[in-house]
Design brief:
homodimer; alpha/beta; LDH C-terminal domain-like; about 45% helix; iron (chains A, B); hydrolase (chains A, B); nickel (chains A, B); glycosidase (chains A, B)
Amino acid sequence: MFKVAIVGAGSAVFSLRIISDFTKILEFKDVEICLMDIDESRLNSTYILANKLNEEMGAKLKFKTTTNLEEAIDGARFVINTAMAGGHDYLEKVRKIGEKWGYYRGIDSQEFNMVSDYYTISNFNQLDLFLKVARLVEEKGEKDAWLLQAANPVFEGTTLILRNVPINMVGFCHGHYGVHRLAEVIGLDISKLDWQVAGVNHGIWLNRFLYDGKDGYKVIDEWIGNNVYEPKHPFDDQLSLAAIDMYKFYGQMPIGDTVRNSSWKYNYDLETKKKWYGKFGGADSQIGWKWYQNNIKEITETINKLANFVSMNPNIKLLDYNTYKDYMNNEIFKEEIESIINPKKFSGEQHVPFIDSIVNNKKQRFVVNILNNGAIEGIDNDVAVEIPAWVDSSGIHPEQIMPKLSERVIKYYLKPRIMRMEMALEAFTKGDINVLKELLFRDPRTRSEEQVEGVLNEIMNLPENAKMREYYKR
Amino acid sequence: MFKVAIVGAGSAVFSLRIISDFTKILEFKDVEICLMDIDESRLNSTYILANKLNEEMGAKLKFKTTTNLEEAIDGARFVINTAMAGGHDYLEKVRKIGEKWGYYRGIDSQEFNMVSDYYTISNFNQLDLFLKVARLVEEKGEKDAWLLQAANPVFEGTTLILRNVPINMVGFCHGHYGVHRLAEVIGLDISKLDWQVAGVNHGIWLNRFLYDGKDGYKVIDEWIGNNVYEPKHPFDDQLSLAAIDMYKFYGQMPIGDTVRNSSWKYNYDLETKKKWYGKFGGADSQIGWKWYQNNIKEITETINKLANFVSMNPNIKLLDYNTYKDYMNNEIFKEEIESIINPKKFSGEQHVPFIDSIVNNKKQRFVVNILNNGAIEGIDNDVAVEIPAWVDSSGIHPEQIMPKLSERVIKYYLKPRIMRMEMALEAFTKGDINVLKELLFRDPRTRSEEQVEGVLNEIMNLPENAKMREYYKR
């Protein structure tokens, strides 16, 4: 039928979500899915579980695996890129160097960009991979092939690719589900909401929030007046004091990861983070991030064990949870697998429904990252924005953003965030290390030239940054 | 003929420059000049010397003095505003409070706005005075009266007034003379230069620099390759290492006060300042600013003594320097007075030549602060920019900015500077203290909420800030 490539398919949870979504759409039951990863062992786990799932769901998806990027993309109509160059280990290594030089949470944690795996300064290999994948889509993909970007930094990546490579491309994120979380906490029925969010990835704001046709912000205000939210886990921050403080200043509610992407006011140190994000200090504190890392580690281990179990016991049924529940010692993965095997539930990842809209001309609503081209007033046309859009076989049709984003969101939040994106991309595209240095000279944690030179040198001297080092030394 | 009001005329050197310029333009010999200041003693000194100068220069200027602002502006065709609400004492008092709370050089010293008497955060009374003067010009001035703004902050002031009061208004500064200083140091004849500067006040850049029709930047580059400049005084920074470093990053030369308005990279502390600005640490170090303050003090004292001497000895000739040179123990004032009494030399202040162009339709070139209205691409129309313009009786005609400002100047320097202007003006026009707080939360010297609350409270509790306090507490 057509070929889909998943780049970074060793990320098994993400891949299984995508594959499970494919099995649940009638028209897609025999799509060819090429799983690509450089980690063969993780790739193999994904492959085993994917086949099992396919078989049990009665789908006829065809899987291939490869460690070769070109081979994966060759002839693909859709390429989903979820790969992180260097993985989480690289991020932690670089964060550690940053902290050694006086940058709490690492040099890539910046004003309005504090999400702990959203690196823009030291992430040369990731930006390089973004472009490499995009160029391969241009050269090797099917005519009018689509690149669906899932890996961070989505904002920088989408802007970089769409400015430089003439392909169909869209960036996806989960951030807008914060609207559902918000509704849930304040007790509103999602089905009665008329909402819009707009901004840039990890910097989106609730510009429209109607409940049953009436101003839903009144319900938010009332809730805020009567409640103080205690987070259930570090990422549970949609109604944290930080979110509410941002809402009060900017005049619109920050949604999803935007709450994490605030100024240093909420992030000076762990104590400050706890004050604003609750007892865990939010997702991007040493506590919250450790929790997240442990989860990832456990999930990966659980998946490997499960894949192993399945290959040793080929008659087991994934759809019969009781037969292998002993392996599910991880609560989050348990929820995950239950969702994956539920034939009536989609994963929430937008990729497969998006492909469904494009291929089968089913008009559906998404929140997409695409170049602005006038969608948000006051933002340059060639900057990737995150906005709601309707998609069908003729492509992506952005909604009119109405009402507008507040002046403060545009002028005081999005513009400085966009400037940092521009600096990161200029450094990368021109190979000028001075722009990265300038970014750090404007960092409130910087106290001297030596600090800037020192931290960048140490990061560039990591063995995995040989290409970055050479590139910036030209 | 017509009436000119000088608001803040107790600033004797500035007033004498203006008056002396009037005496040197044939058509202006009988203009009526109303000197206004709230400091009667300083006003009187100006008045005595003004009359003496007028008489000796053979002019027939008519002087009046008043401490009443409305009276000064009533019927004026041109109002020159050089008044600083609270004077230098206020600035130093506020700086001291800032330093007590951990803000080296005070809270108003901000990235790209480090000039030590250019307050935007704590300067409520000055912004308030700007508007008051502008509204009086609208109500009481002659039809089509002009307001010529000389007092800082010119950028915020010009933008504020031109956005809110429908009058003719222009802001003036000396910064562009940095081009002459640059030419002098690197050995170029000013008369052979074809130059342009553009940007915002105290943030202007040498976008055009042709010498004898050829690229003058080559001469700059050669000079830089062979010289390291040692400043003769703290303000002598046009070829400081800071200026050169900025030039290398931004791709165009910062001109005049722009060199002082850099990032914290050059300003972390005195040691850093000395490294980049030479032995005095630049104008805005504790050394440089002390030097400037001492100069102001000495000049003021010298002027008062001279005025006293003149009133006791009415037959003395100001034009005969020998008769009172003993009073001129201040080297800078000596130069100043020599320039003032030189019948062939204009002061360099643009105000009187500008009035000459408007009234007498003499087409001349100025560097003016006016709303952008498309002059600089990428900058909003309603932001005051500083650009070269030709002026005649039909008004101000901006030059086309060619070549353009560099992308880095626009994106990484002007835009963040403009954002801070917008924040200062929004706080002021809406009476929202939270915007000033947000400015400080983004300040690299801020480490806690308590620090922000503490420093603002202490400043607002100064007796002279009663109006500010009430305004922000509404």
